Amino acid sequence: MAPAHAQRASKASKNKAAVAVAATSSRVDPTDSVALRKIYDEALLRGQSYENLRYLTGTIGARLSGSPQAQQAVEWGKLTMEKAGFDRVYLQEVMVPHWVRGKKERGEIVGNKGKEVKVAVCALGGSVGTGGKLKAGVVEVRSFEELRALPEAAVKGKFVFFNRPFDDALIEPGTAYGRAGDQRRSGAIEAAKRGAVGALVRSLTSARDDNPHTGTMSYDPAVTKVPAAALSTNAADRLSLLLKANSQLEFELEMACETLPDVKSYNVVGEIKGSKLPEEIITVGGHLDSWDLGQGAHDDGTGVVQSIEALRLLKATGYRPERTVRAVLFMNEENGNRGGMEYARLAAQNKENHLAAIESDGGGFTPRGFNIEADPATVAKFNKWSPLLEPYHAGGVKAGHGGTDIGPLKDAVKPKALIGFDGDSQRYFDIHHTSEDTFDKVNRRELELGGAAMASLIYLLSKYGL
């Protein structure tokens, strides 16, 4: 048997080892809470997200891919990152679609006695125009299955009116958006397959108002391209009611939209080089483009300014990340995701090692936490950091979708986690893709808190890895 003092020394050594193991497994250092508090103090007292967003939305405005405003936003993003003092700022060239709306759309319900009722409509992004006024009968459906079950004579030569509403029983509006979205994305294809002349789609929102919601739609090369328009929820409800009273009424639509040749554009990238593991990269980003009806404030101006701010907050608090951190302003998320695909292609081409990627594309509302797209063991690692984020109401960590822009990285370079910033979404789809998505709808504190939450997670990822 060893002497008593040797036993005590051995026991003390084991205790120290146990403490070290416990500290490692918990992924929490006492200094972490101090570092995060500094990040939040900087964001709430000296944050720059709100004023950056004011300029982006107010001076530049809507930034549809291919537009002059999109190019102005690229130049603004590069200059803003350079002023923030990032180690490197550069552009990634990418060709993007160039769809233009043209003059304001017109929609009217026409009764059998010639009475006209004007309703709020807008073209869906990527739609063909009507080539003047297009008038036809209307058949209402709630699903593709219902459409396919109709006899040919009930559909041919008419507008198909897709009127499936949001499921308001769902707690997460994003889930309702996903379940209703097929009629917007593919409604024109399904309508044309049955010989319809166009598609009318109920706006993807629970709000009852006169603000039509645009959004991307698609065509099938093997199927005739027909015009596709969104009706405001009030317009959809009115059309449905009038159809019940008169199934022979007609709808007159006029849209001047068209698709022009692709245009050269850019992703904007700014990075801070890691001090210890610079070859490991953490990406944080939002999309610089927006739809053309509003100012692209919540979708996705907030994600853009939060991504820039996340890096600025690290610099301002004196923290040098151990891994390289990149802020990426992606171009063309809304109608093509060309920027996200090009970023991933270049990452693979350059054989880059991406640890994780974070995206903010759900509006700049009050932070709740993060959605983690990763294996269960990796999600569990994030859960161990929740106590550090909970004092700031950002500790909710769960498995979920990372984001559209960062999605292509999954196959290209296989990061350990794709992460979606999760803000409160109850109001998001009231203004999503509408003329109401403007700067005045953004709350300064909510916006700055979101940037701080993202910076805090980057701090933890950079320090501890995955």
TrEMBL record:
Task: Name its GO BP terms in alphabetical order.
Answer: peptide catabolic process; proteolysis
Task: Please verify whether the record's keywords include Metal-binding.
Answer: yes
The molecular function terms in GO held by this entry are: carboxypeptidase activity; metal ion binding; metallodipeptidase activity
Q: Known Pfam families for this protein?
A: Peptidase_M28
Which InterPro entries does the record match to this protein?
CPQ, Peptidase_M28
Localization terms from the record: Endoplasmic reticulum; Golgi apparatus; Lysosome; Secreted
The Peptidase M28 domain, residue ranges:
267-455
- What domain of life? Bacteria
The main location class comes to endoplasmic reticulum
Identify the keywords attached in UniProt to this record, alphabetized: Carboxypeptidase, Endoplasmic reticulum, Glycoprotein, Golgi apparatus, Hydrolase, Lysosome, Metal-binding, Metalloprotease, Protease, Secreted, Signal, Zinc, Zymogen
Q: Which GO terms describe its cellular component?
A: extracellular space; lysosome
User: What subunit structure does UniProt give?
Assistant: Homodimer. The monomeric form is inactive while the homodimer is active.
Q: Which PANTHER family match?
A: CARBOXYPEPTIDASE Q, PROTEASE FAMILY M28 PLASMA GLUTAMATE CARBOXYPEPTIDASE-RELATED
What is the name of this protein? Carboxypeptidase Q
Give the source species: Hymenobacter glacialis
Lineage here is: Bacteria, Pseudomonadati, Bacteroidota, Cytophagia, Cytophagales
